[in-house]
Write the structure tokens for this entry.
Amino acid sequence: MRNIDAPLTGGQGRPRTDAPVRAPVAPGRMPLVGHAPRMRRDALRFVSGLRHHGPMTKIYIGPRPVHIVNAPEVVRELLTAHARSFDKGGMFDALRIPLGDGLITAAGDRHLCHRRLMQPAFHHDRIARYARVMSERSLARSAAWEPGTTLDLVPEIHRLTLDILLRTLFADPHDPDLHTAVKGWLSVKYHSMRLALSPLHAWAERLPLVPGWRPPDPGPLRRLVAVQRRIIETYRADGRDRGDLLSMLLLTGGPQGSLTDAEVTDELITLFLAGTGTVSASLAWTLYEISRRPEVQRRLHEELDTVLAGRPPGFEDLPALVYTRQVLAETLRLHPPSWLLMRRAAQPVTLGGVRLSPGAEVFFSPYALHRDPQLYENPEHFDPGRWPPDAAAKAPRHTYLPFGAGSRLCIGEDFAWTELTLALAAFTTRRSLTPADTTPVRPLVGTVLRPDRLLLTARPRPN
């Protein structure tokens, strides 16, 4: 792995000087739209290829300039040494319309305050309680998959993760209005990244009457908020801890007070976004990778047989499921759900030798970083063995970012690891998986990176 503490160099290996420089503009900029067509055509290849143009590259989304960080040394600068000089990317201002103003879009002191208030909801003891729901629902969903049959697991996994999320968020997850509102909101939230990367949106900020530009529909968010407010009123009147995440959000408090009803609804929506898209995409990619590799499945089965001995997986089994964790870690390297992350300079700052003014937009791609051949040997190859057993839970900081990093590290990371491990065990313990056809799985690049389809055949394992 490359030494990210080594001095930065400019082109042709020249040492970086202290004098600020300008980042080169990536080739392929087009009038009016900038690099947006290239992003739309193949965003993953585009952001991965930018490393060849230097540690920092400038692109344009319509008229909006954006600096892309390509080097791990500069990512480290961004997330540590200069972390206080940056806030959430400016394009998240527009995302508040479909996504609300929870941890994903909140900025500055609001973000830090809410993160501290929400932390108890993800304490070790609470996750252990949620793990029972994760295991039970995963086993129930996988049991419905008859041996010898073929399923598209993408919608199946989406239903599973939504089911788990509703059962951990709410003591009574069967409210019909809640289900309808959540599904309506989920149908529009997947387009949020397209909004952030749209040249029309960039021009609309300067010219509000741009033809063809329509702001996102706030209706689904309003309907979801209304249902949540009704549920919150019931919880407030009751006042007890029902053992779910909503109870913990309502019981939070500290020197800066507690969350208001409006703030609780925003954070619930944050959990809907992270708890469905991120986990479902990661589980689908994991099943995709192991279905193509009999040797990986064999080792996975051996571990599950030894650790579980035929019983359902539980929270107490997680430390012993070492190879299972390695398989998940490698999947998250190749297919990080958060494929593109954004920051905005809050003050003048020099990053990677480039001088940035307040308001300057900065992107960095965990997907591109995870496939950098200077960081990972043979980076396109799926190899769980690249994660040593004693390091599988502690991957290198700033070069492995499936759940973000720094103050923006996903608050539900441990929740996600627990759900992924238990669900993977439930789907693979008693069956072998094989691809149903040879059609390549296509990544859909949206708010998260997810497969377009996943046709797998389940075959019973020999006794």
Q: What stands out?
A: The chain has one domain: 11-460. Confidence is low (pLDDT under 50) at residues 1-17. The domain at 11-460 is CATH 1.10.630.10 (Cytochrome p450). The chain is about 45% helix and 10% strand.
